[in-house]
Amino acid sequence: MNIDWAALGSVFGVSLVVTVALVGLFTLGIVGLSKQAEPAAQGGSTGGSLVLARAGAYLCFGLCAAAVAYGIYLIVA
Known about the structure:
The protein is mainly α. Helices cover 77% and strands 0% of the residues. The protein is built from 2 helices and no strands. Helix 1 (5-34) packs antiparallel against helix 2. The mean pLDDT is 89.
């Protein structure tokens, strides 16, 4: 039995990078959803940054879902 160590290392490296990227995207999504509107008495924003944070969060979650769907496609097809 021969083990192709270069291929094994390549698979490990790609898996590590993709895992860290997906966890990072999901974390950015959670952070985007955790933003709260600041009270206007403290000179906070008018809500535009809140909408931008939510849109970014949904984009991150969408990219995570697309990556998972692509992974399932690779396994099934």
